[in-house]
Design a protein that fits this description.
alpha+beta, 2 domains, 12-stranded antiparallel β-sheet, two-stranded antiparallel ribbon, 4 helices, disordered N terminus
Length: about 375
């Protein structure tokens, strides 16, 4: 019986582990509406992030959470702590996001007076941002509905950065719907021109709904061989936004980042219009030999084509002359054949033989000698 009990222990352990990792239903605990459809506060527990003592500049072993304030401005732009996150203002440079840290518990957050978080530690965050539909500025929909997914990957303050890979940490999901009146075909308004509302906000288990957790080192390395080093092939190109990978010029290491950085460094000491003139002159100097070579190649091609047409005309003329001569010879041969027929029908007329002219009558040559008489008659 003991053996049976021991043999069931691994199974029980596995079942307990599966129950532990089994995703729970989406929850709205930690979500507090300030204005329904427009503004909402979200309390996100972060097990990997210790509480930061701003006075002593040290970490404390205390349960903490990050507070996110989402607001829909003018029913068009979704802000996170006053920073636009949808639609994006510049997809090449993803926005830097921040969140206040607080030790407030769940009950006080949902039912108590909302404290001011202005004096709370302000963390810069790394995040994964995704939408299920295209958010390109030129995209058009008859009725626009989407869900912004935000996963906090890391947080940093006072030079200290902490990754947040804990599987029990949740995702923030914000449902955005278009308000009427809706468009009719053809759909002319883009997503930045329609009125929106925050229809729902909830928290979802990170495991197993999201993609695997990627650290900055595990992401694909960015090199100059790529124009922007995208995470995905379509707009807005970036989903994993780590602060160390981006600056004001975009994705660090990309060819686009290098060009913008060089342009900025050259523009500062010389000025904008001076650099424009330098670039124009450099462009002219660079393109002049190219245009000259293209011009010479066009002239050579034109001459070659003209020579081909001239040769073709000569060949056509030669063929025409040859056909004309052949036709004349054919007519002469026909005339000669007719003359031959006429000559053969007249017994008194003979043809030219071996180039000797005909007399028009039969020429018998010299007269034949007389026929000799019989000997008996000779006396």
């Amino acid at each position: 019986m003991t053996a049976t009990h021991l043999s069931l222990d691994p199974i029980a352990f596995k079942a307990a582990a599966e129950a532990y990792w089994k995703p729970s239903e989406d929850i709205r605990q930690g979500v507090r509406w300030l204005e329904r459809g427009r503004s909402v506060l979200v309390r996100l527990e972060t097990p990997d992030l210790p509480f930061w003592n701003a006075n002593e500049q040290v970490d404390e072993n205390q349960v903490s959470s990050l507070i996110f304030n989402f607001t829909l401005q003018d029913r068009r732009i979704l802000l996170l702590n006053d920073v636009p996150i949808f639609p994006l203002q510049n997809a090449y440079v993803p926005p830097r996001l921040y969140a206040h840290q607080s030790a407030i518990n769940l009950v006080s957050f949902e039912h108590g007076l909302i404290p001011s978080f202005d004096e709370s530690p302000l963390y810069a965050i790394d995040y994964h941002r995704a939408l299920p539909v295209s958010e390109h500025p030129s995209a058009h929909y008859n009725v626009f509905k989407t869900q912004v997914e935000l996963d906090v990957l890391g947080a940093g303050i006072a030079g200290q950065n902490t990754l947040l890979p804990d599987k029990t940490q949740r995702l923030i999901l914000l449902s955005i719907d278009e308000t009427g009146p809706f468009q009719k075909y053809p759909y002319t308004k883009s997503i930045s021109e329609v009125d929106l509302t925050l229809s729902d906000t909830l928290l979802r288990d990170r495991f197993p709904h999201n993609t695997p957790f990627f650290t900055p080192q595990s992401l694909k390395k960015c090199t100059l061989w790529s124009w922007r080093c995208p995470d995905i092939a379509e707009y807005p190109w970036y989903r994993y936004v780590y602060r160390e990978a981006f600056d004001e010029y975009g994705k660090i290491g990309s060819f686009r980042h290098m060009l913008l950085q060089v342009w900025r460094q050259l523009r500062e000491p010389f000025g904008f219009w001076q650099m424009v003139m330098v670039l124009v002159v450099a462009k002219v100097l660079l393109l002049t030999p190219i245009f000259y070579r293209l011009h010479r190649a066009a002239i050579r091609t034109k001459r070659h084509v003209k020579g081909l047409y001239t040769r073709r005309e000569e060949v056509d003329l030669y063929r025409t002359d040859a056909e004309a001569v052949g036709l004349l010879n054919y007519e002469d041969n026909e005339d000669a054949g007719d003359n031959e027929k006429n000559s053969s029908s007249d017994p008194g007329v003979i043809r030219e033989i071996h180039g000797e002219p005909s007399t028009g009558r039969v020429d018998f040559g010299k007269p034949l000698p007389p026929i000799p008489t019989a000997t008996s008659d000779m006396r």
